[in-house]
Amino acid sequence: MINVDFASLRLIGLTPAIANQLHALAAENDDDASLQMARITEVHRDSLVVHNGSQSMQVRALPRLLHELAADDSNLAVGDWGLLSNSGDIGAGYRFIASMPPFTHLARRNNEGRLQALASNVDTALLVMGLDSDFKLRRLERYLALVQGCRGGSRHCADQG
Fold this sequence. Notes:
161 residues, alpha/beta, 5-stranded mixed β-barrel, two-stranded antiparallel ribbon, 25% helix, globular
């Protein structure tokens, strides 16, 4: 059974489509009574900071989940939705056990040619650039291509300040 507080989760971006996908993920883990929906707000080398609608908490992802994502040449990013489980082990706390495939995904290629996740499930990207001596039109074009490639909406703002 999954614990859901739609009112508070809606404030951090929960939509009916996301809720349906998370319920389908929860059905695969129906033997766990401590499941909670959560959204990743920070990604660190060995941990995640997630928000469950009422509080932020630092958790670890299950190694199985990380291996499955690595096999698909993917990884967790800020904005991803998934399920938390309290394993019941003393001192273990919550674990991020399942991740929903993102609707939109901002990623770039790193120096090795592999994809580096920047953010997931982005509705609108706000691109802001100063019109000073550091302004480069090519940079703006790269950012626009990145946002348009993930099917997210974008807004543009230029500032002379």
